[in-house]
Amino acid sequence: MTASLWATQQPNIVLIITDDQGYGDLGYTGNPVIQTPEIDKLIKESVFLEDYHVGPTCSPTRCSLLTGHWTDRTGVWHTIQGRSMLRTNEKTLADFLSSAGYETGIFGKWHLGDAYPYRPEDRGFTYTYYHSAGGIGQTPDAWNNDYFSDRYSHNGKLVQAEGYTTDVFFDEASKFVKNTAETGKPFFAYISTTAPHVPLSVPQKYLDMYKGKEGVTDQVAAFYGMITNIDENLGEFRQLLESEGLADDTIFIYTTDNGSATGASFYNANMQGKKSSEYEGGHRVPFSIRWPKYGMDKHKTITELTHMTDIVPTLLDLAEVENSFGVEFDGVTLESLISESSDSPEIDWKNRIVFSDNQRVVDPVKWKGTSVMSDKWRLVNENELYHVGHDPGQEVNVYEDFPKVVKRLTEWYDKTWAELEPTFNQTTEVSIGATESPVTNFNAHDWIQKGYPAWNQAMVREAYGIEKPGEFTGYWATNVANEGEYEIIISRWPVGSGLKITQSIPAQPIVPGVGKNYSAAEGKAIPITKAVLKIDGKIIEEQDVTADTTTITFKTTLTKGSHQLSPYFRLEGGEVGAYYCRTQPVK
């Protein structure tokens, strides 16, 4: 059967994806402690992908989930260092759906670029309510955000919210759904929680649910508390769809973005590895999909190997949305699996090959943190072979025993890598002076450099990078849209904060949870004496920094095209990059 036999109009789509929650962080998958009754109930009323795989970290999964392409094809193979920005030649699920008449809303985490042309509003979303970067309190995020009553970007404006972050995102999604339903248009609600990503900040009542339980550390207690809060919100959101008469014709998806970051130390469903790992526990996650009007409202377990690149082609197929951009997907439609439809193409599921890799580097490295998968076979890091059907914990390397399997998986990977490798030098460049967004904000999170930059606000506060200062070699990859004179404004603290470049600042209060929110670090003073503007490896200008200086403004003419923007501060003994920068045309 096809979707058109059931639907009188295109179905609504809700995609809920949580952050750092693994396969074992659910009651449904056997966790003896965690309380997730609403998610468990949903799975029991849905089609469940039992052997579904994503990337081992945040941004790589999100890019593939929304484009249907391998992460390494999209330019997103890391979470920082300018490698979390989705290339502009990629089309997202929101692009496809908005072009088909859907209202498309994002609520929560994006993590595929914070400046034009990489923001959600530039990538097909007609309604946006999100935080910047990969987590609350990271460097691009609104200053001093800490999970409680934070500031978020709402349709291009920074707004103040009240309440705990997960509650806020679900509340905003609920408003979007109700308002859109009144118009009669179909909607796509992408609810992407930042929880249970660190910092492990959560209202005390959820922490108290798990503290003191046998074998549960304080960190795991907070982590599980964040998940139970998500669970409650998911249940309330489903009730909203029911009360509004929308549930029957809404495709409802729940999934997560990588293996468990914290919970694996307590329960990991017999898998090896957690977040960032190439082993099963790093990239096998839960995925459920429900659509009552299409007959997908009873539990069904799919045991075939499935992958994050499959979701876009599957949803376009189910919703009968045309591939209007002519994209050739790396994934395949799962309609024949989840609906037993005879209209879908036959796929040799037993011999299909996919891969997941952990490229937390500036430029991808072949076989780095890689698992090549086919059915139950896993070829890991080129020289380890496991059959997870017989050996779910990946304890016995049978590489020498199955040379034909090794040869088949290696040849596929070699061919795929050879195709992808020429694209790796297509650096994602942030636009300067574009008509659509003439003012551009930069921050240390996206420095392209050897070694990690200051990717969270605690690192900025603690003056990361000056313990052993030397020559600053980082830069922002930029593309000047219109030649002209520009102001390049740099600061140690966020531009517009009014804080002096050399001053210290007090720590913010610690919020409920375990550990410290990033804003609870003291802001150290830095003995900066000079500010330097360097572009394309050449020093353009230097200015003195005094005790009263809040920002330094350089004025320079920028030619159209690609440039490496590299402003920094000079202090006795070395240099440190400007943590924050803003560019804008001279009026």
Task: Report on the architecture of this protein.
The protein has 587 residues and is of the alpha+beta class. It has 3 domains: 336 residues, Alkaline Phosphatase, subunit A, CATH 3.40.720; 59 residues, no CATH class; 156 residues, Jelly Rolls (Sandwich), CATH 2.60.120. It contains 12 helices and 27 strands. Strands 6-5-4-3-7-1-9-10-2-11 form a 10-stranded mixed beta sheet, sandwiched between helices. A hairpin with a 2-residue loop joins strand 21 and strand 22. Helix 5 runs parallel beside helix 7. It starts with 11 loop residues before the first strand and ends with a strand.
Q: Which architecture of the largest domain per CATH?
A: 3-Layer(aba) Sandwich
Structural domains: how many: 3
At CATH level 3, the topology of the largest domain is Alkaline Phosphatase, subunit A
The total of helices stands at: 12
State the helicity in percent bands: 10-25%
Question: What is the number of E strands?
Answer: 27
Question: Rg from C-alpha positions?
Answer: 24 Å
CATH class of the largest domain: Alpha Beta
Low-confidence stretches: 1-8
> Can you tell me the CATH superfamily of the largest domain?
Alkaline Phosphatase, subunit A
Overall residue-averaged pLDDT value: 96
Q: End-to-end distance, in Å?
A: 60 Å
Q: Enumerate the strands of the largest sheet in spatial order, edge to edge or round the barrel.
A: 6-5-4-3-7-1-9-10-2-11
The major sheet is characterized as: 10 strands, mixed
Query: What shape does the CA trace take?
Result: globular
Strand content: 15-25%
Which structural class should the secondary elements be placed in? alpha+beta
